[in-house]
Predict the structure.
Amino acid sequence: MAAISSDNHGLRLVVRYAVLTLIAAIFIFPLVFMVMSSFKPDLQLLRDTSSFRAFLPVGDLSLDNYRDAFTRAPVATFVFNSVLVTGLTVLLSLLFCSLAAFSFVFLNWTGRSVLLSVILATLIVPFETIAIPLLLLVSKLPWIGLDGFQIGWLNSYRVQIIPWIADGLTIFLFVQYFKDLPKELIEASRVEGASWWQIYRKVVMPLSGPVLATAAILKFLVMYNQYLWPLIVVQQESYRPVMVGLQYFFQLDTAWGEIMAYLTVITVPVLAFYLVLQRAFIASIASTGVKG
Amino acid sequence: MNRRILLAATLATTAGFAGTASAQTALSMWYHGAGGEVEGAIIRQIVDDFNASQSDYVVSLESFPQESYNDSIVAAALAGNLPDIVDVDGPVMPNWAWAGYLRPLDIDESLIENFLPGTKGYWNGELYSVGLWDAAVALYARQSTLEALGLRTPTLEEPWTKEEFMAALDAAKESGDFEYPLDLGMAWTGEWYPYAFSPFLQSFGGDIVDRETYQTAEGVLNGDAALEFGEWWQSLFADGYAPGTSQDPADRDAGFIDGKYAFSWNGNWAAVNTIEGGVDDVVFLPAPDFGNGSVIGAASWQFGVSAASEHPEGAAAFIEFALQDKYLAAFTDGIGLIPSTPTAAEMTETYKEGGPLNVFFALSEEQALVRPVTPGYVVAAKVFEKALADIANGADVADTLDAAADEINADIERNGGYGHQ
């Protein structure tokens, strides 16, 4: 058996790479299909789906779908709205959730474990179950802004951002990460006379790169893919995000080529964001695996 | 002196404009057609024309994607910010009226006397909505196919019987020229199922609910006629006449054009693409008569006034304004829908007498039957869709229809009969 195993080392390597390549292809092919289809007219696109041509840049290729997509819908506005809402929510979420987690892990106050349990329990509540009560709430909330005092948050950026800043998963990620930080560092800082704010800002956060990246990417994906919430709280086109905008292309005759062009365009910010944080994200996942 | 005159004139003009602006009442309108460039341009033109035609009201338009429009309306109703004017899909109208989203439409009804029946939204004896267009379904075929298979071309007066229809499918199947004889559009889910397929059930003699009372589905959705329909429906898939629920959406869109199917059950909205796709000899055939007459679905999007509107007379004035033939014809020329009046049809190239799509106007006029006019339709439609999909996938016909009838009945009971008078 040993001899066979040794002789087959090369074969095993080939099989392993073949399997890995196949798995990679399963993930990559939909993206390749999307990009390739975005350059094809509808009829050709539909006909190509029955063959491998769907993944190849063959046939009548042009940028017409991109031109038509930008004509059909205010794509730039949708992308801007989504990037703005997502970016602000991610930043505020990292700040507030890390502060909450810092309090849960390092500060000693009555009821923190109960409150943390309650927050973690919200993880099992689907958003759909609270969407309507939340809608009724935000439609009655007061606000003072540049336009003065007003009742109701509908049709605004704030209604898409504020309810999503704090969430159980992000707090949980920070709590777990902070628990593994060396306690000696915190105690030494306290002995040196550092305030809790200074410890948070100058000791804990500089060590939290991996969890920041993980939380940011997870939050980014949730926010960038928002559909139901903006659908029910935003009626004005000028505030609509990309996922609601996708519906513009489902007409009586669905514009498949334009849909692929639109999807390609709105995928760019996601890829860019992931590439920027890729190293920290992988480091975070890898370190989690070692601990596990 | 000249400066003083100029100043006075400017002030007078400004004051005049200010007076006009402050006297105008703002009306908001929501429309389901975001993303439809031509459609959007036409509706904006109507709004602009209305605003310019009078000085009492100014309408502002907000468009929504059709796929999410109904959800937006329901959310807005909950949050208390419905607009003055809404458009509503015909079969959904009774639900919105019952739920208190809509108020009766107070317009001069003589204006819609010659409108197609499917474009008038009545519920509980009152007009709630009216449409500028309708839609119709036909059996797409090639004239050359009919001739090659030796089939009679059915007409409105003499549609195919069930036996003729099945013989046509058999002939297509035996020819070996097609992947399937019939494309029913099973890849399209949602409202397509009750809209396109419940007319088959009605032609068999059944229905989704009992239209006499709207209080039960018992006996109509699971009676003898419905069972006969169910067995026939299942045989279409079991015997290889039509692709089932796993049909590739691409084939639904291009299969008939590519020659994969001999016949296709499709709406008037696909007609222009079919002709432009190269099917020069396409013919639009009436629905087969399965024993109780040829039936197709009716009622498309219509305009109504929201119950929350503080200016319903202004909203109604806008809708009356929009009912002009020139706008009906504009929608037809723009996006291929069936104009609501014969006079508007004559103004179009496609639907006028002798036009390539004129047959759809006749189909809509002669065969159209609105879907059950009840607030419970929105639930019943989903139950019906699931039942048909299950039967197509091999479920027991009697059990499935019994379960569907029970589910619809339970919903009616839960909602206190939906307020039918």
Summary: Residues 74-249 of chain A form a domain with the MetI-like fold fold (CATH 1.10.3720.10). The longest strand of chain A covers residues 142-145.
